[in-house]
Amino acid sequence: MTNKENPPKEHILSLSYGKDSLACLGAIEKLGWPLDRIVHAEVWATDTIPADLPPMVEFKTKADRIIKDRWGIEVEHICVIKNGERWTYEKNLYKHVSPEGLKKRLSSPNCFKRGISDIYGFPTRKGPWCNSELKIAALNKTGNKCIRYLGIAADEPKRFHNLSDTKKSPLVEAGWTESYCRKWCEENELLSPIYTTATRGGCWFCYNQGVQQLRLLRRNYPELWALMLKWDADSPLTFHADGHTVHDFDRRFQLEDEGIITESERWKWSYLDAIQMKLF
User: Fold this and answer.
1) How does DSSP classify residue 7?
2) pLDDT, mean of residues 246-275
3) pLDDT tens digits for range 105-120
4) CA–centroid distance for 184 within its chain
5) What distance in Å separates the CA atoms of residue 111 and residue 104, rounded to the nearest whole number?
6) What is the SS3 assignment for 34?
7) Residue 152 pLDDT more than 90?
8) Calpha distance 80→77 (Å, rounded)
9) Is the pLDDT of residue 278 over 50?
10) Phi, psi (degrees; rounded to nearest 5) at 181
11) Count of beta carbons in the 10 Å neighbourhood of residue 119
12) Spatial separation of the C-alpha atoms in residues 223 and 60, rounded to whole Å
């Protein structure tokens, strides 16, 4: 085989802007591993609204500048394109499905039917299309003939099954733990603002986020919360797999606003029915 027939593989860092993937830059540098490209799968809520909250959008711009200055590589922000336009969370949520397709989705024990509809609706834990349709699909466009670097820390053995000859973790090879990754990011001005208010990053509309993150979203970004409520009203599937909706959370937070309950007290969903029946 000649080099033309069998070209060398590119070495690509899949960047999420979390502490572990950013710390990969330091580990790669320490190990002396090659790095050709840095790719980030950008998720959009709508055509004009990103999946990241404003502080994270600002941080990405800052991090890109630091990366360009220090490592000389421009971070590539990619997203899924369909029919010549950006594919968004909202477009996938509202895409039409056949009655058979919807029936199949609703057959999952983790799904709860909300009414007759021919749209796809919210993702489910059994089939989280938000990840496959918006992130993985974008990263797959970067090509299969490459060595991909993943931000899996040395103290995350449950994730080691994701590693292979073409998917490597600089952190595992360097022995860098999650706590060390955070320390490295702090020292290099690359610690994401998400770690000041939460333990996880991700999209502001993610069903995996905790109650406090939902509470802060409603409080600090009412326009985004209003969009969530609209999606919730239209989706044939509930926001949470246990059957609870964005509107349920909205009623809960409204009770907190009115002083009927406090944020710190133990919450029971039965309170909503009790209040409606004036038994609370």
Assistant:
1) P
2) 89
3) 667 666 676 666 788 8
4) 23
5) 10
6) coil
7) yes
8) 11
9) yes
10) -60, -40
11) 15
12) 22
Note the pLDDT of residue 100: 78
Q: How far is CA 188 from CA 10, 62, 185, in A?
A: 26, 12, 5
Q: What is the pLDDT of residue 166?
A: 93
* Model pLDDT, residue 101: 75
pTM: 0.86
Residue at 194: amino acid letter: I
CB 151 within 8 A of CB 180: no
Length of the chain equals 280
Q: Quote the DSSP letter at residue 169.
A: -
Neighbours of 92 (CB within 10 A): 18
Count of Cβ atoms closer than 10 Å to residue 175 Cβ: 11
Q: In sequence order, which ranges of the chain are alpha helices (DSSP H)?
A: 19-31, 54-71, 89-93, 99-106, 129-131, 137-140, 170-174, 178-187, 211-220, 222-234, 246-257, 270-276
User: Angle 52-70-146 (CA atoms, 0-180°, nearest 5)?
Assistant: 70
Cβ neighbours of residue 127 closer than 8 Å, sequence gap 6 or more: 105, 108
Convert 216-249 to b/e letters by CB count within 10 Å (16 or more is b): bbbeeeeebbebbbebbeebbbbbbbeeebbebb
pLDDT digits (tens, 9 = 90+) for 56-107: 999 999 999 999 999 999 999 999 999 899 999 999 999 998 877 777 766 7
Query: Measured between alpha carbons, how far is 249 from 50 in angstroms, rounded to an integer?
Result: 23
Inform me whether the pLDDT recorded for 3 exceeds 70.
no
> What is the C-alpha separation between 99 and 269, in angstroms, rounded?
32
Q: What is the model's pLDDT at position 108?
A: 64
Q: Residue 216: left (phi > 0), alpha (psi -120 to 50), or beta?
A: alpha
Strand ranges for 79-127 from DSSP E: 81-82, 85-86
Helix ranges (H only) for 175-266 are 178-187, 211-220, 222-234, 246-257
